[in-house]
Design brief:
The structure holds two protein chains of two kinds. Chain A is mainly α. Chain A is globular and about 35 Å long. By secondary structure, chain B is an all-alpha fold. The chains are: A mainly alpha, B mainly alpha. Chains A and B meet through helix 1, helix 2, helix 4 and helix 5 of A and helix 2, helix 4, helix 5, helix 6 and helix 7 of B.
Chain lengths: 73, 234
């Protein structure tokens, strides 16, 4: 994706629309969220607001992607 | 949870948070790390090995974005990250709720420490851009004809609101994080604050922009929510 694309820039500026957790709570829940996701369970129902945070916070998104890549079979 | 809109369901969990519900491997990790003497020392050494594996994994993932760092520097960063993660894990052992495997819980500390160190290293000595560099780039962007009018109008409104509706601190944080791609931990260091506090500021600024835009008649409910990959890494 082009990071200078106007849609992308507006997305970064406006962030996710829905309620979201903060970085600290994201970190607390991340291991549970990733394991649920990899198990095919409803991770978003178990950890509401986390997915929105991952959409709005690039650093937490990177942490999520790394953990998921590391532990997935 | 921020802003009280959602509450965590109580019925969904991988295992029960009580020690009795832990998976055998996690239970064994906790038992050994809480033991005395040589057994604990051996468990700590195993844990450090696990954390080092996690830190090296993160370093390897980011290596292509860090061509200026040599192999031994990357090894040092991984080792420092594992050391710091070990301290954090041991200090927070009682916080482990058993909602994931112990190893997954521990890994996230190593990945976090490695990622923060690598982002800081990448921005070491660099000036933090607090002015909106992206606006000039966007000015030269050719938009699709159908979208051009709508996007141009929205972009213009956002630019105006950033100047008029946000506090100076909100404007500085939004500009650095969302427009200029400064990593949040790097900005937190420079401003002597925390990642959580900065994200709260970013969130408040975004909410304020959305509210003003909605009041001005922009239909943001159809705006794509997920812009997942974020700003480019330096």
């Amino acid at each position: 994706m082009d990071h200078r694309d106007p849609d992308h820039v507006l997305g970064r500026l406006l962030g996710p629309a829905g309620p979201e957790v903060g970085c600290d709570e994201c970190f607390e829940e991340l291991d549970r969220y990733v394991e649920l996701e990899l198990a095919g369970a409803d991770a978003d129902a178990a950890c509401p607001g986390l997915r929105a945070h991952l959409a709005g916070c690039p650093a937490c998104r990177e942490d999520y992607e790394s953990l998921r890549s590391l532990i997935q079979p | 949870m921020w802003w009280g809109a959602i509450r965590e369901p109580e019925t969904v969990a991988v295992v029960q948070p009580s020690g009795a519900g832990l998976d055998p491997d996690s239970r064994e990790w906790l038992r050994a790390l809480r033991a005395d003497g040589a057994e604990r020392d051996e468990a700590i050494a195993r844990l450090h090995g696990l954390l080092l594996r996690g830190a090296r994994f993160e370093v390897a993932r980011r290596k292509p974005t860090l061509p200026h760092l040599r192999g031994n520097e990357l090894d040092d960063i991984a080792l420092e990250a594992a050391d710091d993660a070990l301290v954090s894990v041991l200090a927070r052992l009682d916080d482990f709720r058993g909602l994931s495997r112990f190893t997954t819980w521990a890994y996230k500390f190593a990945l976090f420490e490695a990622a923060v160190k690598l982002r800081r290293r990448a921005w070491q000595g660099r000036e933090i851009p607090l002015e909106p560099e992206t606006w000039t780039v966007l000015a030269g962007t050719e938009l699709e004809p159908d979208a051009q009018a709508e996007q141009s109008e929205l972009l213009a409104a956002v630019q105006r609101l950033i100047q008029e509706a946000l506090t100076p601190h909100q404007r500085r944080v939004l500009t650095a994080l969302a427009l200029n791609g400064v990593p949040i931990d790097v900005l937190a260091d420079r401003l002597s604050t925390t990642r959580g506090a900065l994200y709260k500021t970013l969130h408040d600024a975004r909410r304020k922009l959305r509210r003003h835009l909605t009041e001005s008649g922009f239909a943001l409910d159809t705006w794509p929510e997920e812009v997942t990959d974020g700003p480019p890494r330096p």
